[in-house]
Amino acid sequence: MMHWFRRLMPREERFFEMFDRHAATISRGAEELRRMLDGGEAVARHFPAVLAAEDEADAITREVVQAVRRTFVTPFDRGDIQALIGRMDDTLDQMKKAAKAIRFFELTEFGDEYRQMGDAISRCAKLLAEVVPLLSQISPNASRIAILCEQIRNVEGEADEVHDRGVTELFRHTAPDQVLRFIAAREVFDLLEKVVDRFDDAANEIESIVVEHV
Q1: Checking phi first, is residue 106 left (phi over 0); if not, alpha (psi -120 to 50) or beta?
Q2: pLDDT 10s digit of each residue in the chain, 214 long?
Q3: Which partner for 22 in 60, 73, 114, 124 could form a disulfide, CB atoms 3.0-4.6 Å apart?
């Protein structure tokens, strides 16, 4: 009787499609942010695209939240759905903060460590875009999901090392009369590292969902 009743209730079959679209938007934002770190004219050229990706991701997040509210049958726990899309959205929110800081401080030249941080962000975005579609069939994909989440965690660890090394180099090559410049550059470096941290948070959320369903 309960099975029959549930079949009559409103269903939302598009959660995974929305997750996939969000992950693709994250990848696009990550690529645009990476291109900003090439410096020069690339900063102004790619900045609007980062903001556009963040706006699009926010719209998808709202779609997911509204779908949760109107749907009786969801693919997994409602709280998990909202937590996952929230953690995913945090990655682009943090990218937007980093991009805006670059523009605000008028930075147009970046050392190798900045580009390495950008590469780490791009790698995490690609890994997330690969793992998210696997959630539509959690049990058979559990092992692959675990591997991809661990790879995100490894990138996060590498990014920490790049950050520390980059800040040290930044300090060594900043003249005493350029303290404000150092503070601005350090702030951007910290924000880039936090983007990678947000990907780690998303991976942790995915792993917690897998644990509940396998």
Answers
A1: left
A2: 334 334 434 455 588 999 999 999 999 999 999 999 999 999 999 999 999 999 999 999 999 999 888 876 677 788 889 999 999 999 999 999 999 999 999 999 998 999 999 999 999 999 999 999 999 899 999 999 999 999 999 999 999 999 989 888 888 877 777 888 889 999 999 999 999 999 999 999 999 999 987 6
A3: 60
